[in-house]
Amino acid sequence: MHYSSLDALIKEAAVVLAKGPIAMIMVEDDVEIDTTLRHHLQAGFEVVLALMPKVFDLPADLRESVVRVDYNMSAEGAMETAVNAVNDAAAGQWLYYCFNAEYLFHPFCETRSVVEMLAFHTEERRHAMLAYVVDLYAEDLHQHPDAVSLDQAHLDRSGYYALARKDDTEDAHPKERQLDFFGGLRWRYEEHVPATRRKIDRIALFRAKKGLRLRWDHTFSDEEYNTFACPWHHNITAAICSFRTAKALKSNPGSTFDIETFKWHNSAPFEWHSRQLLDLGLMEPGQWF
């Protein structure tokens, strides 16, 4: 299915977006588009939207299984505009969003689908789920100058931390059950990353409702959506394993020549398995066993 614009999709939302969960894959360049889409189809999403420029092509099998929407991701506010539009059109459905060369992992995802996980999360009276964006990078940047390699992917096994998220009052009180999380390449190369872009937390899975608004910093207008857990116990968290920061650091003229390798003493090969992420504390199952 192919729509010429986001507006054209929204006009048929009653049919296309009638069943969730729905994944929105925002395509910024031509890197790993097909693997990103296939990964999220296999995760169990009922609908996978590919919001992408007209110039990019899709393999024949994906044209049949993915809902393609012509969309310019380089426009100002493209991410939040798309997410908010789909949110209003699909109220009540679970939504997920990420970019190309990003891959969602959740606890036990090898044997349990995203539908099962969200069913449990809903029973826990939760309407949003925190995800950590875990940076991936190629082992050899001479062989892979764009820093992307599925076969040689590495991640940082330590260096992650959290700070209290403050409100906008004069005394800047900490917000209840909200933290700003940091780590990965944005922390190690912070001199090349604006301070407002260094967080690695993202409310990537959420229950759509009319009037809800995603902001540019990956937080929502409803503060309860931004919490990492409910008041009475820990909840499930997920991980988005992402080449996006590595790509940006190697494509930016201001940083590419300063980086010969992303590897350091705390690098480890990425195993493409939820157990590794659970063992490293990069997501947790909460009460879901």
Order of helices and strands: EHHEHEHEHEEHEEEEHEEHEH
The overall pLDDT average reads 92
Helix-strand category? alpha/beta
Radius of gyration: 18 Å
Supply the number of helical segments. Answer: 9
Q: How much helix is in the residues? A: 10-25%
Q: List low-pLDDT spans.
A: none
Q: Biggest sheet, in brief?
A: 11 strands, mixed
Range of strand content: 15-25%
Distance between the termini: 37 Å
Please tell me the total number of domains.
Answer: 2
What can you see in these coordinates?
There is one protein chain. The protein is α/β, with parallel strands linked by helices. The chain is 24% helix and 25% strand. The protein is built from nine helices and 13 strands. Strands 1, 2, 3, 4, 5, 6, 7, 8, 11, 12 and 13 form an eleven-stranded mixed β-sheet that branches. The radius of gyration is 18 Å and the shape is globular. The model has no long low-confidence stretch (mean pLDDT 92).
Q: Mind sketching the topology for me?
A:
Elements: E1 2-3, H1 6-11, H2 13-16, E2 22-26, H3 33-43, E3 47-52, H4 60-65, E4 67-70, H5 78-89, E5 94-99, E6 102-105, H6 114-123, E7 128-138, E8 153-156, E9 161-166, E10 174-182, H7 184-188, E11 201-207, E12 238-242, H8 244-251, E13 267-269, H9 274-279
Parallel strand pairs: 1-4, 2-3, 2-5, 3-4, 7-12
Antiparallel strand pairs: 5-11, 6-12, 7-8, 7-11, 8-13, 9-10
